[in-house]
Structure formats: C-alpha cells, structure tokens
Amino acid sequence: MWLRLQSVIVAALFVSPAMPAAALDDSQTGNYWHRICSTNDDFGRLGCLSFVVGLEGGVTVGTLAARGMEPYCQPPTVNNQQRVDIFKEYLAKHPKDRHQYAPLLYFLAMREAYPCEK
C-alpha cells in the first residue's frame, strides 16, 4: 500500500504543473525559491517561510486524505525553521535540479532528510 501511495504522490507532483519544466513560471521553480530563500532581507525570509509553511500544510492535508500514510517521516518536534533550512540546503546541494517544480523539490528534500523506515 505504501509503495502505491508513494508512486501516486510522485506522479502527481511530476504532472501537477501540467507543462514541461521549461514552461513553468519562474516563481514555480527551485531557481526562484533558491534566490528568495538565500536573501538576508525580511521579505525573502518571510517569503521562504510562508512558501514552506504552505507546502507543509498541503502535505498535512494529503496525509489525512491518504488515511495517515506519510510521504516522509519527520519527527513531531520539527519546526518550520528547520523545514526552511532543509529546503534551502537541498536547493544549494542540487543546482542541476533547480529548474524543476519547487513543490517537488521540497518533497524530495524532506524525503531525503526524513526517510520512512521500510
């Protein structure tokens, strides 16, 4: 069941923009969010935090819809700043992928940081 859910989630993330990565609006890419999240001004920090909080909210709703099947297994004590740091680090370490859909990159960052035990 978990493998099936993972396949559905990954497939949905890949097709959700319904267009090739080259056609994505810049604000939908990892390149854009890497720039925003790397700034030291309040606008960038707040923008990055808001983006991550929104994505995490979507994951929470998706987890409820999937009857508790989590796409990654973060400890319950992880806070939003840690999530931002994980996303920023992933974007910095994967420049070749930053043209991709940013929500997918967030999902991959969190899966890398908090994989579920098999």
Task: Characterize the structure shown.
- The protein is an all-alpha fold and 118 residues long.
- It has a single domain, classed as 10k-s Protein, Hypothetical Protein A, Chain A (Orthogonal Bundle).
- 62% of the residues lie in helices and 0% in strands.
- It is built from five helices and no strands.
- The longest helix is centred in the middle third of the chain and has 24 residues, at 42-65.
- It is globular.
- The two termini are 12 Å apart.
Q: Which CATH architecture? A: Orthogonal Bundle
Q: What gap, in angstroms, lies between the N and C termini? A: 12 Å
Report the biggest beta sheet as strand number plus sense, adding barrel if it closes: none
Structural class: mainly alpha
The count of helical stretches stands at 5
Q: Could you say what the CATH topology is called?
A: 10k-s Protein, Hypothetical Protein A, Chain A
Please give the structural blueprint:
Layout: H1 2-15, H2 30-38, H3 42-65, H4 80-93, H5 102-113
Helix pairs in contact: 2-3, 2-4, 3-4, 4-5
Short description:
By secondary structure, the chain is mainly α.
List the keywords.
118 residues, mainly alpha, 10k-s Protein, Hypothetical Protein A, Chain A, 5 helices, 62% helix, globular
